[in-house]
Amino acid sequence: MPLPRARVVTLNAALGPLDYRVPDGMAVEPGSVVIAPLGPRQLVGVAWEAERLPSEEVGDNRLRPLAGLIDVPVIPAPLRRLCEWTADYYLSPLASVLRMVLPSSSALEGSRQLTEYRLTGERPGRLTPQRTQALDRLEGRQGTIRELAAHAEVSDAVLRGLVNSGALERIQVEADQPLSCPDPDFAPPKLSEDQQAAANSLVASIGGGFDPVLLDGITGSGKTEVYFEAVAEAVREGRQVLVLLPEIALTQPFLKRFAARFGCEPTAWHSDLRSSQRRRAWRGIASGEAKVVVGARSALFLPYANLGLIVVDEAHEASFKQEDGVQYHARDVAVMRARFEDIPVILSSATPALETRHMVETGRYRELQLRERHAGAQLPSLTALDLTADPPPRGRWIAPQLVTEIEANLATGEQSLLFLNRRGFAPLTLCRTCGHRFQCPNCTAWMVEHRLMRRLACHHCGLVIPQPEACPECGDKDSLVACGPGVERIADEVQALFPDARTAIVTSDTIWSPVRAAEFVRQMEEGEIDIVVGTQLVTKGYHFPNLTLVGVIDADLGLSGGDLRAAERTFQQISQVAGRAGRGGKPGRVLVQTHQPDAPVIAALVSGDTEQFVAAETESRQEAGMPPFGRLAAIVVSAEDKEEAEQTANRIGRRAPQVEGMAVYGPAPAPLAMLRGRHRFRLLVHARRSLDVQDVIRKWLGGVEWSAKVRVAVDVDPYSF
Ligand code: ADP
Ligand code: ZN
């Protein structure tokens, strides 16, 4: 129903809802995207049901008229309810949530022609290092000058130089080309009996209302093939589908796999899209034309016209947790969205989170299991290598037994994968003469040496400095030593051990674009690589039939520090990487290097007794009242000035309410005591399940004031702490 006056939520988090008069002839209803004048500014906002957002009533005669109605579909009611829920649950301004619904300003504009640039293939005669970097990084890319400059990490001027010298060309793109339409019957697989049973059950739930399902199947059991059947059914019924992936790097292989099944690629949504693609995807999603959307967590808040199914692939992944801004967990919000939309949601995982298992135990989600690998492939056998008993030689990290196994694989022409979840060459550089350690000036973190790029980098704030030639402290040359291994160093060791082997490093430093990722897949498939050394980037999604050996360089890495999820995360990560081995006809072997072969998580991996591990973990969480049996929230107080941060944190701590069933710990320096130049102090709230922690925290923080230089962020259900 058109409204005579409108309450508008703008995208500006500092503003509450604002009231406007709707001019004659403008049909505004709840969900309309409008232009709201404020002082001299024009703000984009969404009209909301006034009764749901208490605000100061302003008399009709004092209202300014809305400045315009944007010609896009109305933001649907279920999505508005989801926005309210998210703002409430994660203690965030509604405006911040709404920014995820309307993330693309170009989608709201009328223009249909956009100017972009791409490489011509010509290389100019004079190549500065900056230009070389740009030419390297922009291979296969297209975008505006600004987008390309950001991607290549060079200035706009460098790119304009390349335009002038003919290496980059200008092209006009038509923004609103039609999106392709997946064909549900293009190439359906022949499913095994188990797979068919699971698929039938999923297919039956399409169109039938809210239905959260855990699709729990070992790696390589065909979970993707199975949920594709549900996707096909939703498409047949004319509904839209959202598939959430944990990592942008997995998008490209997924698009190809989808195309093999459905005859065309789905619509992609992630942070790496250029603005023309973003515009096209957003408008297709809002109009209902984009039938299947595959994306990172941010795709969750888009205004689907007719959503019929959500799939969360690798649902246990930590990367579904957003760590700044609105700190939401995409897995949990996906379930809420399905609830508001009244549709099924599939959580697919080989190693479901304890939280998800708990939902199954308590009857709130149902579970479908796949217990066998496709085509009789066997799960690989897993062996722990005790580094205390059989250590590698000094200064090396690959144990003798693993060396022997790699040798055997080289002899038979099979591929091997060495996994270490640490980018770069070495996590720490120190001066032998004076003991100086290279630390990030902005963070409580060491600078990590990236030898391939000839620089040191902070993995928290992104600061990079050129690789130093002398110690900045004592001036000594040749005194700098790299401490500990990163993947680049393991690759060096492999090269020294097996000079004839063809080795590839797979990290975000080497696979920086979809083109690179596709090239890596091709090389693996065509047998041009013998040994891959990689970070968690290679642990998921890939299917290489000739890969039969996986070596885990340091299983203890994730166990140190001892946070709540250390053992669970290690279990998931090693299961995941182990799952890359033996996916074809040949059996796989997994060797796990560790100093603590008796640790319960390692023992569980070796014995394959998942249930026992889960039971033990669950029990210890239950005893401690930890999630999913209790609730946690972290309040992080940060400021550039340490004292200011600490004093504010103390003040907040002193005002902590006494509530039955809730305890407040701290403040104490946060685990990353300094991040991006801000000092951080943390209070941890631990409460019983039934307590409305959000309400308590909202009232508590509402009664404390702090200076504008201090930031107070609440992380509800923190993933790591
Ligand atoms: P998961 O997602 O459980 O790890 P996938 O769906 O990726 O498993 O399946 C593993 C591999 O087996 C993939 O290459 C997939 O195409 C193949 N596969 C699984 N089920 C079938 C089937 N019924 N017919 C043909 N290929 C299948
Ligand atoms: Zn830093």
Reported for the largest beta sheet, the result is: 7 strands, parallel
What proportion of the residues is helical, as a percent range?
25-40%
Query: How many helices does DSSP assign?
Result: 19
Mean pLDDT: 91
Distance between the termini: 47 Å
Weakly predicted, low-confidence segments: none
What structural class do you assign from the helix and strand content? alpha/beta
Strand line-up of the largest beta sheet: 11-12-10-13-14-9-15
Ligands in the model, by name, code or SMILES, are: adenosine-5'-diphosphate, zinc ion
Number of beta-strand segments? 30
Beta-strand share of residues: 15-25%
Q: What features would you describe in this structure?
A:
This protein has 19 helices and 30 strands. The strands form seven sheets. Strands 11-12-10-13-14-9-15 form a seven-stranded parallel β-sheet, with helices on both faces. Strands 16-26-25-17-24-23 form a six-stranded parallel β-sheet, sandwiched between helices. Strands 2-1-4-3-5 form a five-stranded antiparallel β-sheet. Helix 1 packs across helix 2. The protein starts with a strand and ends in a 5-residue tail after the last strand. 30% of the residues lie in helices and 23% in strands. The chain is globular and about 85 Å long. The structure holds adenosine-5'-diphosphate and zinc ion. The site of adenosine-5'-diphosphate has 15 residues, from helix 7.
